Amino acid sequence: MTGADGRVALVTGASSGIGAATARVLADRGMRVVVNYLSSGKAAQEVVADIRAAGGQAMAVQADVREVSAVDSMVEQVRASWGGVDVLVHNALIPYAVKSFKDMTWDELGGKLDAEMHAAFALTKAVLPDMTAQSWGRIIYLGTGLSRRPRAGMIALGTAKAALEQFARYLAQELGPQGITVNVVAPGPVESRIANDVLDDKTKQRQVAATPLGRLAHPADVAQAVAFYAGEDNAFMTGTTAAVNGGMAMY
């Protein structure tokens, strides 16, 4: 355990994948971690148990981040237990349709945009008072390389995450004078159970071949980038997007 003097980090969608990896890394660095989950309570408790077994502090809190009342209730629960949230890592993945624009309805595209931004808006509003009061805070949103480099069928996700990236820049400009940084971590394809279900071997091999570092990202690779943005060492980076893609896309 290394020191982050007990700062409180709320990680949304933290029962598996990037969220779980991030929760473990932040706890290892001395933060008290809130493992948010939607429906995977058992998996979330396993992440908490792992963190505690390693000597860290964590608790699991259920909340649908698309619901303002649920978000407010979660943050109140954290405040009652540990004080305010110092670090927000918004990782929870809002469902989306994978299809061409030609086949897509406005409900599918507009619904993803609305849910994506509503969740980020509600979470940020809920944690901001405590960050503002102490003139210190770290906000990290999980984006995607698809917001800059389109791929067939991914218009809903790519468009919504592009909006989230610009939202982050506006917040970074407004909140900087209050000691709060706002950044985005944008992974390329990540090796995970979900990716294995969605991507066939041929697609995965093509992506690996296009990556100078010769593999897909692991959740821990993404978690390390998040952890840098979340920590005391990041004193002067805000409004940026970190591409964690092994060089598959460079910008």
TrEMBL record:
InterPro entries cross-referenced by the UniProt entry: NAD(P)-bd_dom_sf, SDR, SDR_fam
Family from the record: Belongs to the short-chain dehydrogenases/reductases (SDR) family.
Cited Pfam families: adh_short_C2 (PF13561)
Top-level taxon of the source organism: Bacteria
Protein name as catalogued: SDR family oxidoreductase
Gene3D superfamilies: NAD(P)-binding Rossmann-like Domain
Organism: Streptomyces siamensis
